[in-house]
């Protein structure tokens, strides 16, 4: 009777689906323990299982079907159905397999979780791959069954591969399953590796990165994924990433595969630039050619004349300095290709340009991948701090000269305590630029501002002026071009609103809204103002030094001026403007000024000596302070300009420099 009384643990002997998961201590699934006291039933079940284990599938099926007839009420009936479901799945008789697996659920609900594993194998064989992955993935690294481990892993890998084009994240469980298969079947390592390599070769990068983080680096799949990521980085020209990934791969495996050695060698060679070579990418043809040629002329001037503020022995150290110029025509693809050529072929230490926004963005992204510092001259290129995709905020290789709305507003608000001036309003077009500028003003102030918007094509501003007159505000920002500002200001004057220099008046309270003033004369276009506001105009609204009759509408107004040839900020800027005009017959624009400044900053960084790599140059550029003809003054440790703009007040017809704290050029 002892045999009849013993417990028969037939709960699908503990086998781990994915041994790497087991080694990480993942939760094990405990199969239910079923008990029989019938010695004959015990014997019949053992004989059936032995036949199945020895590959005598027909005999095993016959014995199990007989068991269900002869021992219909035995506790082991659910096990017989489970075994039959698995055997019929292997045999390809899916309706019968489905029928027996369905019976397991009705016979013993305690086996439902383990049942999902065998259903997953069946779903994979049926081609219902999405269901198969959902059923099998939870069992990775968990004890679920007996000799079916390899079948489950194969089913999961097959179904994950079949669905990965539609569901890229299925690369993760699929590769984990293949990793476990190699551990279960070490003699088939090569076959499983070839299967994985074919699949990985068509994978997008994102799921491969996700898989890399989930795979054990001592497994068989991790090196294959790493090798493919190296190929992808090389094809995109991201040599910094190639070197980093190759170093990590070699650190783990102790070797670089033969097929990758040339790539890694080329990536390493690219890391040795010539510190005498600076690349230049400008639009010398196409619609922006005038701007590009002006910037090139400023660069040539910078090569011929050392910056006046330098007291270092730069002549002999930098007399071999070379500029290698490429024309991108304003085209993004040509700009990106130029970055590659300047980096690979000419071994440039850094790049100046491009000018056109799309070209600058494409070149900046490629420069990031190649690890070469680039100083774009584009007013349309957002800075890394704005979160432009592909431009990391920390340790970026992109050093933009042009400001964005936030940094310009920040400098304007620091002017003589403007931020504490009281209430603010902004007039702006109802387009992206206007909305962005108004939103940035609110962010920098830390409070809402009153907004008055108008259509982008508006030319009559009487209603806008009336809306502004109804506001109780101390400071009025104009977020539009000069051509619109000179139409808005007279309309404001007609509504009784005039510009005032608040630095002279102090914090006088704003008068409440009042009726229109009476005309000074019969013309009716110039009324005696009854309210005063501090006008503030961004750099796009700067007209130049000569305002003519329009000056009266902006007396005391604050203007943002990053650079203008008629308003040189100091002796160095005056000398640059004078020499440029003498040589080329026209005053330099802001692009020419920033091109000259880019060369000045690079020269100052390089003339200190010791620069042997682009990484070292990028590190030196962060935090560098240089006397520049434009507003920037070098770069903060974040890689953004020290200053976005210079600030001037209009007094009469003269622009008078205003103080902005912390500016390196002041």
Descriptive key words:
27 helices, 9% strand, alpha/beta, 666 residues, single chain, eight-stranded mixed sheet, elongated
Structure described in brief:
The protein is an alpha/beta fold. 48% of the residues lie in helices and 9% in strands.
Question: Can you describe this structure?
Answer:
The chain is of the alpha/beta class and 666 residues long. It is built from 27 helices and 14 strands. The longest helix has 18 residues. It is elongated. The chain starts with a helix and ends in a 9-residue tail after the last strand.
Topology:
Blueprint: H1 2-5, E1 16-17, H2 19-23, H3 39-53, H4 57-70, H5 77-91, H6 94-107, H7 112-126, H8 129-136, E2 142-143, H9 149-163, H10 171-184, H11 189-200, H12 205-214, H13 221-235, H14 239-253, H15 258-270, E3 274-282, H16 289-304, H17 314-318, E4 322-327, H18 332-344, E5 348-352, H19 357-370, E6 374-375, H20 405-414, E7 424-429, H21 432-445, E8 450-454, H22 462-469, E9 475-478, H23 482-494, E10 497-499, H24 502-505, E11 531-537, E12 558-560, H25 571-584, H26 590-607, H27 614-621, E13 647-651, E14 654-657
Parallel strand pairs: 3-4, 3-5, 5-6, 7-8, 7-9, 9-11, 10-11, 11-12
Antiparallel strand pairs: 1-2, 12-13, 13-14
